[in-house]
Amino acid sequence: MLAGEGGQVLEGVRGGVGGEGAPEDDAACAALAHFALETVNLARGQADPRQTVHRAFDLLERGWPAAAHGPAV
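Request: output the structure for the sequence above.
Response:
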């Protein structure tokens, strides 16, 4: 990972999820940014990387119980 990538993702998350003005130490924004970055690494080792990314973000959007039953319809 390049040094600037994490900061760019965190800024994008802060603007998209945390809203403008989210504090720099917002733990939820930081966790989501880390999840997004690590999802890319996880997908690289899978048979269907695109499906892996979709399932990972489905988990974020719908939660574990819903995501565990398969992709959204």
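Residues 27-44 form the longest helix (18 residues).
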